[in-house]
Specification:
The protein is an alpha+beta fold. The chain has one domain (7-129): LytTr DNA-binding domain (OB fold (Dihydrolipoamide Acetyltransferase, E2P), Beta Barrel), CATH 2.40.50. The protein has two helices and ten strands, in the order E-E-E-E-E-H-E-E-E-E-E-H. Strand 9 (91-95) and strand 10 (101-105) form a beta hairpin.
Length: 130
């Protein structure tokens, strides 16, 4: 039985980051840089664009990569922390319900797609449990 990779390793010329993927709330891209925000509100900036980060997640985390979803051009979000989608206000709230809550400004089109995807997943889970 294969062990699931739980850590994301980001190696740069001068640094190595070892990040527990369950503690990643979201990632925000800004050009050639990505800021990773953790549940303890710590931020890690790395010299990698969001597309490369998405590939790293897919290749490194294997079966745990499904926990992360690209939303629009600027964000990759851990779906386990998605709490509230407000399409009209162009707002996504990610929280653990106790220690942190972040409001992310995301386009209406991207939030509509996310809402549809989340509803489809919820329906699939409900039908599988019946």
């Amino acid at each position: 039985m294969a062990t699931l990779a739980k850590y994301l390793y980001i190696n740069t010329r001068d640094e190595l980051h070892r990040i527990d993927c369950t503690k990643i709330v979201y990632m925000e891209g800004d050009g050639n840089y990505t800021t990773i925000v953790l549940i303890n509100k710590m931020k890690v900036s790395v010299g990698m664009n969001l597309a490369k980060m998405q590939c790293l997640i897919t290749n490194s985390l294997q079966d745990l990569a499904y926990s992360f979803i690209r939303i629009g051009k600027r964000f990759i979000v851990n779906v386990n922390y998605i709490h509230h989608i407000n399409v009209l206000r162009q707002s996504l709230t990610v929280t653990d319900g106790i220690h942190f809550a972040f409001q992310l400004g995301i386009s209406r089109a991207a939030l509509k797609q996310l809402k549809t995807l989340m509803l489809e997943n919820a329906r699939m889970i409900q039908s599988n449990n019946q």
